[in-house]
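Notebook entry, cofactor series.
This is the third protein in the set we're modelling with a bound small molecule. For this one the ligand is flavin-adenine dinucleotide. I'm keeping the input format identical across the series so the outputs can be compared line by line later. Sequence and SMILES below, as received.
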Amino acid sequence: MSSATPVHADVLDRVTAFLAAHDPASTGRGEFLRARFDAGLAWVNYPEGLGGLGAPGTAQAVVDGAFAAAGAPTNEPDRIGIGLGMAAPTILAFGTDEQKQRYLRPLWTGEEVWCQLFSEPGAGSDLAALGTRAVREGDTWIVNGQKVWTSMAHEARWGILVTRTDPDVPKHKGMTYFICDMHAPGVEVRPLRQITGEAEFNEVFLVDVQLPDALRLGDVGDGWRVATTTLMSERVAIGGQSLPREGGIIGVLTALWRERPELRTSGLHSAVLQAWVEAEVARIAGERLRQQLAAGAPGPEGSAAKLAFASLNQSVSGLALELLGEEALTYEDWTLRRPISADFTGRSPGYSYLRAKGNSIEGGTSEILRTIVAERVLGMPPEIRVDKDVAWRDLPR
Ligand SMILES: Cc1cc2nc3c(=O)[nH]c(=O)nc-3n(C[C@H](O)[C@H](O)[C@H](O)COP(=O)(O)OP(=O)(O)OC[C@H]3O[C@@H](n4cnc5c(N)ncnc54)[C@H](O)[C@@H]3O)c2cc1C
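Returned structure with ligand:
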């Protein structure tokens, strides 16, 4: 590991000094997190003044490890995944200085939750087919349309929103990207119940919603380019987390295997071993991807990590149910809850199995991601498409 580099040592010194001045045991959580942001120790690869130090991304693990060891409060990343993983990199890349100053700090501290208003009933994989209209009236945009599958919209203060602003030009050219005020009049969030029984996502109706032009992210008509930045970050956010060995869904299976020896059969033994090896390979490949990312922006390789994440979550959660046998037929609770975070592993094996079904759809379907990996990573000949448009979640060539 490179934790002994001079940069890492310097960053670690800053953490030590910060902790000396802000005792986690006696400093309030919000105050602690805001001060950590202001000290540049939030996302250390971000610029100074915006929660970072302009340090290499590899220093983040060093910082997070030191804060965790000191018992410092976290910003509950599972709760604010869309903000951290998608909205923040997009604001950083396309936001004005005022937007960066206004939104990044409460996003990182978790004081403001974000959601992603991309998918529509008629536009999923082919995002560029979206129909939500934004029409300019002076310094205000009037937005009308419907979004769907919007995770955590019921918790969100802000949304990242893609709209159609010019229906008369080719579809990829007539889109504009906004920050949507989820508290604005005309924004209605309705729960959508999932196979788990919960309503983690929603449909969002936008009726004459007025958004000031100051909430536009990027140029008018440049929404597709802004959205691809979000989407590239999304795949890494979903599939590229740093995990310890046996972290993630494989840990649920191995815990069952160890704690319930009476469930074991010889046939399942080899299946569990096989799953362990595949999970470990994916984990190490993810580690390499993160090191590449620390040196630059996410590329198409993130699609492979997201693909592996989805397929492993589904096969391993299925194996856990096989291990449980009849017990797997019971389910914890069908109450319609409104969760505050997506939890793929912290619940019962039955919940994990059902929740994993969505993993091959959310953040780009596995079919779309396979095409991206084939064409952009492996360099295979492009798929023949009926029209010349690239599909949603594909990347501009
Ligand atoms: C749990 C969960 C959370 C989600 N959260 C959000 C969110 O917060 N915000 C948001 O905007 N969206 C969210 N989504 C929506 C998600 O991004 C879309 O469901 C996804 O992009 C697919 O779009 P679709 O459902 O319209 O399916 P479609 O695009 O209609 O696809 C239907 C099927 O056709 C296949 N297909 C489509 N085009 C091609 C092609 N070119 N080549 C090969 N196969 C193809 C797909 O792979 C799929 O199997 C979420 C989805 C889930 C399941």
